[in-house]
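Checklist before submission:
- one chain only
- standard amino acids only
- sequence pasted in full

Submission:
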Amino acid sequence: MSDVRGCNIPDDLYYWVEKHAWARDDGSGELTIGITDVAQHLAARVVAITTKKVGKVLERGQSVATVESGKWVGPVPTPVDGEVVAVNSDLAADPTLVNSDPYGAGWIVRIRASAWDAQKGELASGPAGIEAYEAFLAAEGISCG
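Returned file contents:
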């Protein structure tokens, strides 16, 4: 995990940097989707997460969930086209999992990607992804510390 301006940014994920969303390739044709450490810091304490239902087909940019905090209410855009195949039911009982573990227990949905090979190139990943996120945060004056 890389520390970028006080934010935890793992280098093994794919990021839609401007939207603070991430995707993890599970290797099975499914992707786990969530919000970044940056997003949860900006939102502050998350009080509710409402996800789309299993079976919902979404295009890149459409909302997979709505996150509500004391400071913000907004969508979590999917970084890829696909069908929702699982939702994190633990978030209904404890939405703060997104705050405490945004890349682990705080994942939001799993999607069966329909155009992963074509769309993953539109996302930032690896060392180049970390650099892209760092440049974005610096330009926006955002830090997690």
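Reviewer check: The first helix runs from residue 37 to 43.
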